Amino acid sequence: MGSLFYGSSHDPIEIPDRVLAHVKVVIATKLRRGESFTMSWRHPSGETAGRSTLWIQPSIPLRFVFGGVEPEVLDPAVLQTYANSANSASGLTVDVEEHASPFAAPVEAS
Questions:
Q1: 46 domain residue, yes or no
Q2: DSSP letters along 46-100, please?
Q3: Distance between CA atoms of 107 and 110, rounded to whole angstroms?
Q4: pLDDT number for residue 100
Q5: pTM to 2 decimals?
Q6: Separation between Cα atoms, residue 84 and residue 60, nearest integer Å
Q7: From the CB of residue 25, how many other CB atoms can be counted at a distance below 10 Å?
Q8: Boundaries of domain holding 21
Q9: pLDDT digits (tens, 9 = 90+) for 17-58
Q10: What are the start-end ranges of the H helices in 1-110?
Q11: 20 to 30 A from 38, CA-CA: which of 6, 50, 56, 76?
């Protein structure tokens, strides 16, 4: 299980390594271009029900921490799906459940 640290929060957002690896590439690509966007997810089982959204922009500190030592194998189709989602009006939406597979389309925010 990986962690995403955003802004000044010391509380990580836990995301499976496979999903986090794909999210990292999409976020890094958009930030390198100076593009801001939102990232949303439904709270996983065991947490308070609901969903969260972050405003991702270059001036806010961001750190990715992976549980595994070896880099994840990236799927180009998943990267394209996530990139398209990040470029949409609703922003990047991901499934942060531990059983989540980045090989399915992102969850639509309601």
A1: yes
A2: TS-SSEEEEEE-TTS-EEEE-SSSSPPPPPHHHHHHHHHHHHSTT-EEE--STT-
A3: 9
A4: 53
A5: 0.84
A6: 22
A7: 16
A8: 2-94
A9: 999 999 999 999 999 999 999 999 998 888 888 999 999 999
A10: 17-32, 76-87
A11: 76
| Single-letter code of the amino acid located at 54 | L
Domains in the chain, number: 1
**Banded model confidence at residue 109, pLDDT cuts 50, 70, 90:** very low
**pLDDT tens-place string over residues 69-104:** 999 999 999 999 999 999 999 999 998 875 555 555
CB-CB contact of 18 with 64 (8 Å): no
Residue 29 to residue 12: CA distance in whole angstroms? 22
Tokens matching residue 77:
């189709």
> Strand pairing partners for 100?
none
Go through 64-91 and write b for each residue having 16 or more CB atoms within 10 A of its CB, e for each that does not: bebeeeeebeebeebbebbbebbeeeeb
